[in-house]
Amino acid sequence: MSTSIAARSAAERRLVEHVDRLAVEHPPIDLASVDYSVRNPVEFEARFGHVLDYMARVELEVDRNVLELTTMLPDPPEIDRVFYADVWQPQEIRHGLILDSLQVHLGRQPADADLDSLGLKLKVLGALAHLGAFQDVCRMLYYLTGMATERSAVLAYNFLHDGVMEMGETGIAKTVIGPIRRQEPGHYAFYQLSARALWGELAAWQKWMVRLMRRMSFAPVGANNEKQKADFGDVMTTLGITDRFEDFAEQISRVERELLWARTRGLKVPDYVARAFREAVELARARTPERAA
Ligand SMILES: [Fe+2]
Ligand SMILES: [Fe+2]
Fold first, then answer.
1. Ligand 1 midpoint to CA 28 (Å)
2. 7-292 in CATH: which number?
């Protein structure tokens, strides 16, 4: 067995073990375990209501993400299918339902999640992805998006947990935010293992294509239009990310930078990542000057 085939099967084995472990150790959160009582609902809603709404929407939109995935990756490796169908989607939907119920308990409208619209660009990608070599480009983009998204989720839930504790809402911290945030690092690990394994197998033209398409398509998690970008800017401000967004951007793109941009020395954060976050903050400021003040 050549070294590269041995390395590939070792990476595949690790992935399979990882997904098995997630399935066993992290079943979807039991809805009966959640306690929605809030000590100071008015204050809590004023501070975190919009954050809950953003996160509930992003979590619920995994149903659309699965549609996008099946379009973009018509013939995925079995382990990818097992991960998104049996582990990831059932967990994320529960996160969305729980966060959405919490905001409804606070008197807010449920999240306006887009569950089924597929953009034209994606359909074109999907058509091209029937060519195996191009499907690997799409797969790499999917893993990169997954890494940035899941790392953002880990950090955002950490900040939210701190804020909720600070307000003395220990029940919410313990039965809502805590259990959700414990499930995110396993998703991040899946994408990271997958990205590292696939990058090593891509040909030079595929890597070039990935760099180009990533640069063109990067967006913060859940920010698909100007309004959602501004909403994301508000979430960043409430969670305290705006003040240290270089650090946040660096953490969510660390492995991406290492893989795609290893030769670009001195760059802490890919420029398109930094630009997207800056834009979100600016759009939020322009929309609600009072919140930015
Ligand atoms: Fe989640
Ligand atoms: Fe996740």
1. 10
2. 1.10.620
